[in-house]
Specification:
The chain is an alpha+beta fold. It has a single domain, classed as YjbQ-like (Jelly Rolls, Sandwich), CATH 2.60.120. The protein has four helices and eight strands. A five-stranded antiparallel β-sheet has the order 1-8-3-5-6, with helices on one face. It has a three-stranded antiparallel β-sheet with strand order 2-7-4. The longest helix has 14 residues. The radius of gyration is 16 Å and the shape is elongated. Bound molecules: zinc ion. Zinc ion binds next to helix 3.
Length: 140
């Protein structure tokens, strides 16, 4: 068994922006030389999330609308008073989803279903640079 570490940054521009990071994670798996095992993907953030879903525009809008229903723009957030960064709703939305994913690696590739893509979903109210860490464990 071998362990490989990798990672990359993602620049985001706006709230509720999806960035497809499937290719970048696949690239890490390829570089690792791993033939079978798991890839653990971790997002170092409290105002953005990792999501696996179909890359279909209506669905991506549905996900954002659900998050906005859960944490509307027009209510008071105590966090905003604590820090003045005005992103209380962003933190709350991020808790709806995950900051970690585990995907199997088979035959040197991520084992994803036909319609599965991996997205970083930005919830913060200003542009950010996100760090994604990937830990791959398995056999070469
Ligand atoms: Zn904050």
């Amino acid at each position: 068994m071998t362990i490989f570490m990798d990672g990359f940054s993602v620049k985001t521009e706006s709230e509720n922006q999806f960035t497809d990071i499937t290719g970048r994670i696949s690239g890490s798996v390829s570089r690792s030389g791993l033939s079978s095992g798991i890839a653990s993907i971790f997002l170092l953030s409290t105002t953005s999330s990792l999501i696996i879903c179909e890359n279909e525009g209506g669905l991506l809008e549905d996900i954002v609308r659900r998050a906005m229903f859960f944490a509307p723009d027009d209510i008071e957030y105590r966090h905003n008073k604590a820090w003045g960064d005005n992103n209380g709703r962003s933190h709350v939305k991020a808790t709806l989803y995950r900051q970690d994913l585990t995907v199997p690696v088979r035959n040197g590739e991520l084992l994803l279903g036909t319609w599965q893509s991996i997205f970083l979903l930005e919830f913060d109210v200003r542009p950010r640079e996100r760090r994604v860490s990937i830990t791959m464990v398995g056999d070469v």
